[in-house]
Amino acid sequence: xxxxxxxxxxxxxxxxxxxxxxxxxxxxxxxxxxxxxxxxxxxxxxxxxxxxxxxxxxxxxxxxxxxxxxxxxxxxxxxxxxxxxxxxxxxxxxxxxxxxxxxxxxxxxxxxxxxxxxxxxxxxxxxxxxxxxxxxxxxxxxxxxxxxxxxxxxxxxxxxxxxxxxxxxxxxxxxxxxxxxxxxxxxxxxxxxxxxxxxxxxxxxxxxxxxxxxxxxxxxxxxxxxxxxxxxxxxxxxxxxxxxxxxxxxxxxxxxxxxxxxxxxxxxxxxxxxxxxxxxxxxxxx
Length: 286
Fold this sequence. Notes:
The protein contains 9 helices and 13 strands. By secondary structure, the protein is α+β, with helices and mostly antiparallel strands. The strands form 3 sheets. Strands 1, 2, 3, 4, 5, 6 and 7 form a 7-stranded antiparallel beta sheet that branches. A 4-stranded antiparallel beta sheet has the order 8-9-11-10. Strands 12-13 form a two-stranded antiparallel ribbon.
């Protein structure tokens, strides 16, 4: 990744010690954080007393680019709320290969599962660019979880995370790069909701190394695939803006020509001979 990784626990501790404090409650900071929370998906329309509790007991943690909020397997002693910048959820292979499994934007929770039960962290949280996180210690969780609406939203968010994890597992294990990239673009079109006229566009991650880590592919292969799409007229790119010129073609690549006629074969079932779809794991002739 193109930002400085914190290689040791000691370095991360130094960063945390230098930038964590309890002085977020200046009037300007308090008002800004409260406005962000009130507009976020998780916290909007929640009782004012609940937001007061969160802001009164949270400590502000300023992260420099590339610093680590916590490592995988660390105890879930706090939950974080991103109020500035962006954090990536990263997994590491034995050879140091990075896989980005999620992005947390302002207003988002860092490891929301910690609110439901204590556990070891399932990923490493790294800041991209200067970021600020409000850290709420576990001893202050109870009032939050007494809110049925917030608990319902967190449980719904975890279900979404599970579906996303299954989709990612399918894409990375069963599909080639072009399919994975096409599905990523379509997901971002939905998330970013950026459509203008007959064309659609998305904002790509700040650098290509990050996108490559999200798709579990080398940067060179990712660049080659983007260049092929550009030559074929499927997309055009200007800096981090990717514009899609043929959305139908992109959908066909993402879902393996789902609109094409499905091949079938004869199947002797309990109801006699009938046609069934020719799935990849079934032997098909012809």
